[in-house]
Amino acid sequence: MRKLINQPEQFVEETLEGIALAHADQVALLETDKRVVVRAARPQGPKVGIVTGGGFGHLPVFLGYVGEGLADSCAVGNVFSSPGCEQILHAMEAADSGMGVLQLFGCYQGDKMNFKMAGTMAKQKGMKVETVIVSDDVASAPPEQREKRRGIAGLVLVYKIAGACAEAGCPLSEVARVARKAADAVRTFGVSLSACTIPTVGHPNFSIPEGMMEVGMGIHGEPGIDTCPILSADDTAALLMERILSDLELPRGSTAALLVNGLGGTPLEELYLLYRKAAQICGERGIALHRRWIGEYATSLEMAGASLSLIRLDEELTRYLDAPCRSPFFRV
Predict the structure, then answer these.
(1) Residue 224, Ramachandran bin (φ over 0: left; ψ between -120 and 50: alpha; else beta)
(2) Which tens digit of pLDDT belongs to each residue from 281-327?
(3) Alpha-carbon separation of residue 126 from 15, 82, 119, 121, 129 (angstroms)
(4) What backbone torsions phi and psi does residue 196 show, to the nearest 5 degrees?
């Protein structure tokens, strides 16, 4: 195992300490629960709190989107494992300023179960709670079963939009509506070229044959829909865009935002090759790209590979997408 770590069992806690030390002006660990990341300074005045969470090992997702104009707190689980319901409840209590809390997270069974339990506990304490689950991975279920799809890099764009709506002072019902609208408008598709190693395991958690790539693999190593020889950057981008555009209605004249995401072990140069072809395809189809992001936004430790996310924009979503935000890992 080639990793710059100390004791594998302390990997999550020590990394969280490092993040909190490095970005103390923006985020902190909750004093009573060091697995909860919160904004260093509470917002001025009451606002809807946005709470997220998930397994560790996907930086910047999930905790990297705690900040001004984004999420207010994040419950952190072990590597690739859901946080417990008590951690989620602590995150909700830290984010609640009297206007209620929106649970916003990706579609995974453990997360769904624990967030539901935490939501029930919070409601028993008198807290107002809404839940929006992002299911943007087109590879993981057919369109008629969209609610079963995994939540991956498209979650970042939903954080941005919902966070701006909450920061503007909108009530909980409105923040939830806008978050659902954004979640319904985003699709993601990706490919993986290599495995990753969970520190406490010490060896790759799956394998991909040399010279091959997995199409549609999940960020935890969940099986994809196909294995094929590694394609060129242009052919890979075309494959990803074809699957996304066949699933997301974007007629000529539409406006969208594009996120090109590296999974942890892909050079930035290669991500720009993917963007180049994806942008060309959008131009040929008459789709205007209002914003674009290229980099690492939702990773899987050192996995090589990338995903593309497209979100269909209208005037409302564009306004919230353009609003300022600031976290240690993401800024507009």
Answers:
(1) beta
(2) 999 999 999 999 999 999 999 999 999 999 999 999 999 999 999 99
(3) 34, 25, 11, 9, 9
(4) -135, 165
- Sole residue written with tokens 């590597």: 79
- 3-class secondary structure per residue, 114-173: HHHHHHHHHHHCCCCEEEEEECCECCCCCHHHHHHCCCCCCHHHHHHHHHHHHHCCCCHH
Q: Kindly report the CA angle at 232 between 227 and 235, in degrees rounded to 5?
A: 80
pLDDT score at 220: 87
Tokens of 20: 């909190």
Can you say whether residue 150 is alpha, beta or left, with left for phi > 0 and alpha for psi between -120 and 50 degrees? beta
Listed range (40-44, 60-64, 134-138) with the worst mean pLDDT: 40-44
Active site residues: 58, 220
Pick the closest to residue 84 from 92, 76, 73 (CA basis).
76
- 165-204: b (≥16 Cβ within 10 Å) or e: bbbbebebeebbbbbbbbbbbbbbbbbbbbbbbbbeeeeb
Percentage with pLDDT > 90 across the chain: 90
pLDDT for 326:
97
Q: Rounded to whole angstroms, how far apart are CA atoms 159 and 47?
A: 15
Beta bridge partners of 39: 27
Amino acid at 53: G
The pLDDT of residue 271 is above 80: yes
CB 162 within 8 A of CB 50: yes
pLDDT tens, position by position, 97-118: 999 999 999 999 999 999 999 9
- Residues 146 and 56: their CA atoms lie apart, in Å, by 25
CB atoms within 10 A of CB 98: 11
Instruction: Determine the pLDDT at residue 43.
Output: 82
pLDDT of 205 over the 80 cut: no
CA angle 6, 12, 17 (to 5 degrees): 85
Which residue, 179, 176, 208, is CA-closest to 192? 208
* β-bridge mates for residue 303, sequence order: 264
* pLDDT for res 145: 95
